[in-house]
């Protein structure tokens, strides 16, 4: 792994992280935002209150940093194991997404008594996130 990291395409990692961050906005905003907020018991008043207290810029910055780190890790794994095309990259990303953050989120949900609907939204995001990022990283050398 040590040998792979210096040779990563860091522009590809950055651009892919931006795509992943935007995918999160799409997933938890336009596609499943209302359902996710309902399952999390987040009300519109709570959102307005958070915005009134200085907004969510800090949360977005932290979210992007974590997305960048996840993308870096996936890029290093794909580079170490090789991916001849987008299909292999997507499959690799899907595998990682399911068996790392996906399963961990399911474990957390058991103990936190999260609904099946919320679990589906959250784990679905991880699967799509890692598959899309894997496809991009598998294509972009």
Task: Characterize the structure shown.
There is one protein chain. With 141 residues, this protein is mostly helical. It is built from six helices and no strands. Helix 1 packs across helix 4 (57-81), helix 4 (57-81) packs across helix 6 and helix 5 (86-112) runs antiparallel to helix 6. It starts with 9 loop residues before the first helix and ends with a helix.
Would you kindly provide a brief summary of this structure?
With 141 residues, the protein is mostly helical.
Strand % is under 5%
Sheet/helix structural class: mainly alpha
Count of DSSP strands = 0
Low-confidence stretches: none
- Average pLDDT confidence is 94
Task: Offer a few descriptive terms.
single chain, 141 residues, mainly alpha, 6 helices, 0% strand
How would you summarize the topology of this molecule?
Elements: H1 10-31, H2 33-40, H3 44-52, H4 57-81, H5 86-112, H6 116-139
């Amino acid at each position: 792994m040590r040998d792979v990291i210096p040779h990563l395409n860091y522009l590809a990692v950055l651009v892919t992280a931006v795509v992943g961050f935007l995918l999160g906005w799409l997933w938890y905003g336009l596609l499943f935002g209302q359902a996710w907020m309902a399952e999390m018991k987040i009300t519109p008043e709570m959102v307005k209150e958070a915005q009134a207290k200085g907004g969510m810029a800090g949360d977005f910055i932290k979210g992007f940093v974590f997305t960048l780190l996840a993308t870096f890790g996936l890029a290093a794994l794909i580079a170490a194991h090789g991916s001849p095309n987008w299909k292999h990259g997507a499959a690799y990303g899907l595998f990682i997404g399911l068996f790392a953050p996906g399963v961990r989120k399911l474990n957390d949900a058991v103990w936190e008594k999260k609904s099946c609907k919320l679990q589906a939204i959250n784990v679905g995001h991880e699967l799509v996130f890692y598959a899309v990022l894997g496809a991009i990283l598998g294509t972009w050398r």
